[in-house]
């Protein structure tokens, strides 16, 4: 499956196939050249997307925030560059390059970039089997 969006109408990347190769250095370079990054506080590129797993590369300018929200699945945040503050109502941790945090579904959380940062967000949505019948 090729992913096309209004931001990337050419759909240049395969995001779901039996084997998906993800060139992170290329995407890390691309994300910082796009208008959303050049003109706004953040940018994101979905690098893998299926019913049971989604991986998104997210870039935040220093001071940019993903305000409190929750996810319908277990997530992980793996910091590739920079420093971020990842917080829930009960706990807040500062992540530096190479560190990873995991969080169960439906827990409100936020992310604040303490400096220009890039991270991989992995989401495993809650699987809801469909029954015929």
Q: Can you describe what's shown?
A:
By secondary structure, this protein is mainly beta. Helices cover 10% and strands 47% of the residues. It is built from 2 helices and 11 strands; from the N terminus they run E-E-H-H-E-E-E-E-E-E-E-E-E. The protein has helices at residues 24-31, 35-39; strands at 2-3, 13-14, 42-49, 54-60, 65-69, 73-81, 83-88, 92-96, 100-103, 109-113, 117-125. The strands form 3 sheets. A 5-stranded antiparallel sheet has the order 3-4-11-6-9, covered by helices on one side. A 4-stranded antiparallel sheet has the order 5-10-7-8, with no helix packed on it. The radius of gyration is 15 Å and the shape is globular. The two termini are 29 Å apart.
Structural topology:
Layout: E1 2-3, E2 13-14, H1 24-31, H2 35-39, E3 42-49, E4 54-60, E5 65-69, E6 73-81, E7 83-88, E8 92-96, E9 100-103, E10 109-113, E11 117-125
Antiparallel strand pairs: 1-2, 3-4, 4-11, 5-10, 6-9, 6-11, 7-8, 7-10
